Amino acid sequence: MPVNIPDCPPSLKSIQHYLKTASEHDARDPVVAYWCRLHALQVGMKLTNKKTPEETKMLMGLMDWLEEEKTTHKDNEAISNEVAAQAHLENYALKLFMYADKQDREQSYGKNVVKAFYTSGMIYDVLTTFGELTDEAAQNRKYAKWKAAYIHNCLKNGETPVPGPLTEDGETSNEENTGINTQPEPMGFTSNPGFQPDPTGFAQNPGFNPQVTPATPPVIPTSFSSTLPDPNAAMRAASQLPPVPYTPDPNPGGFVPYDPSQQSQPSQPPYGDNSMMVAQLSPDQIAKAQKYCKWASSALNYDDIKTAINNLKNALELLQTGRDPA
């Protein structure tokens, strides 16, 4: 649908970035366009307590557009439902971020890389509409905005950007610069440059001299007794031992007859199959599990199988243990 929103006045300059991002997605992704304009409206309403006529006209036009768009796309869950919307925007921002980061690390620079980093940062801003960002999302937002500005300035000044994150001094690590292996020695071994192995395979003992003859040589026996023991004497001694009491074996040959009454009964788990153990969840935990399922469904819309699997695993762990893996 055509966008009939008055121009943004200079006093609302801070929301122009979101309005521009929205206009770029009107045809490509109406969900992104809708939430970008809604975020712009929320930010614009908080800028000043007393609005000028130009500001009021522009914000009212934005409200009208949002209402019409919500009615037009009432069947689109990512517009009518905040949980689905958050999942849609998170996956979209992450997909842009991963694309830009891959191009950056492959040193394939251009306006598309800058645009992808920049737009990803804007979408992460929009995600604050639903609450505080996760630590990972906050780090991605900060890095995306910095990387977009950094690559843009490098290309503008004719410089070659450095791929990936930079260290604090902008240089590589000490190990790369010096060539020194900073890895520890394997456990149980210590390198000794002065050690030379003995040719025989044994280390020399400084106090041992193989040429020295011991003062008292060992005595070798020269006489042996030729008398063998009398077997009859052993038999006579055995006959004088007391008799061994005999107890007949109730199960000759080791066979034990089957007795059902003596068989142990297997213990039954309290909830049937152990694999179906569930935790007692609070309403917030149930809502978070629903979010994971929504995010997985949204990821499948972009053929992002890995993200869908991770979200489903998170939902399963939360439902079974009550622990949120995020």
From TrEMBL:
It is a peripheral membrane protein. GO terms for biological process: late endosome to vacuole transport via multivesicular body sorting pathway; protein transport. It comes from Papilio xuthus (Asian swallowtail butterfly). Belongs to the VTA1 family. It holds the Pfam family Vta1. It is found in: Cytoplasm; Endosome membrane. Residues 14-157 form the Vta1/callose synthase N-terminal domain. Residues 158-276 are annotated as: Disordered. It comes from the Eukaryota. InterPro entries: Vta1-like, Vta1/CALS_N, Vta1/CALS_N_sf, Vta1_C. This is Vacuolar protein sorting-associated protein VTA1-like.
